[in-house]
Amino acid sequence: MSTSGSPYPVYQSTCGWTDTPSLRRTHPRLKGAQTCDAVIIGAGYTGIAIAKQLASQMPELDIRILEAETIGSGSPGRNSGFVLEHAFTAASTATAGALYEHYKTTQDEMRATVFQGAYTPEARIFKGAATQRGEKKLVALAQLLEKSGQPFEWMGYDRMRSITGSRYYRAGLNLPGNSLVNPYALISNLAHSLQKQITLYEESPATRLSRGASDKWFIATPEGSLQAPMVFLANNAFATSLGIGNAYSVKIFTYAGVTPPLPPDLFAALAPEGHWGLLPAHRLGSTLRTTDDGRLLIRGFYGYEHEDNDSTRGYLEQSLFSRFPELRHYGLEKWWGGTTSLTANGAPLWGQFEKGLFASIGCNGVGILKGTLLGKQLANLATGQPSMDVQRLMGRPGWMPPEPIRHIGFNMVSAVERRLAGAER
Description:
Layout: E1 32-35, E2 38-41, H1 45-57, E3 63-66, E4 82-83, H2 93-113, E5 119-120, E6 124-129, H3 132-147, E7 153-155, H4 157-164, E8 171-174, E9 179-181, H5 183-192, E10 198-201, E11 208-211, E12 217-220, E13 224-228, E14 230-233, E15 249-258, H6 264-270, E16 276-280, E17 287-290, E18 296-304, H7 311-323, E19 334-343, E20 349-354, E21 357-361, H8 367-382, H9 390-394, H10 405-421
Parallel strand pairs: 1-13, 2-3, 2-14, 3-10, 6-16, 14-21
Antiparallel strand pairs: 4-9, 5-9, 6-8, 7-8, 11-12, 12-13, 15-18, 15-19, 16-17, 17-18, 20-21
Helix pairs in contact: 1-8, 2-8
């Protein structure tokens, strides 16, 4: 298969959700040539969901997972920890309501099994608008939510200020039912919940994928190889390094930073009614949330295919201080980057591509519930069990032009969107 790019990212800095010693390898590397029944490439939310569902459907299978890094050190442990059951995008209004029910069921299952120690109880999740343009976007979103039967509550300036302690936001949409988690703790819990017939390898990136003898797939890693009749690609846009998805997805770096632990009285002023998480009205706006240890996290800004330098900290701090001037004396203690996989229209590249070859690519920045749901459904598809009609509910991904046209187009669209985002950034 033709390939494109590195099989995994190399990050400049560790994320702020855990300390560096916690990221050490706790599972073996793959060594030597081995065979099995199924291989999952990527131990994120999608990959673990595939493995767990395969094991529950067919307990006799020998299932292996290849993780390029250590559990939690990659994208699944670097996001901002929003577990979103609301469906903001879908193929239609009707399918948005159906997706909401799927996401809600998925979160209920996760809450009952893997949320312990990772979940922030009674956190309020909402969309926030800082500009007139952003407020119009919230009105449009409210119309979609109402038509598709998804719960929400409109919040004005005073209500937004009473929740966040900030004068920055004009309006918001409260979104009941969603959750805040520590993503490193959540992905660690998921890895610990794997059934006995599943073997997880860390620091074992898949570097080559090819069709082997007897209808088996051959997967090479730096120190070993696997052969199996079924292979599942759950490494998002890094699947392009194995020859899948290059025309439909692109790697985007997003950035987050977190303050040091704040004095209790200051933190209480920023969260008068308890923990909260704010999603921007514009897709290039800044996401903010409180953390269990009394910090404030901000996520924003995007990079194409590679991680930016330390100047990103300054951009994040500028956005943070515009909302919370009282934090100028504290700044950001840490900042970090993480990758997400974007498709042109937000629809995933999902399904069976060849005999025994399956993939789920394109989380589009909402990977915890969406990735878990798509992973479970992909395992159902592979084992002949009833599965969700993903294309009907989410659509099909749009084609992307090759480089350098793709990069030029990304820069042009980003420049326009940044101007439109304005103070939402």
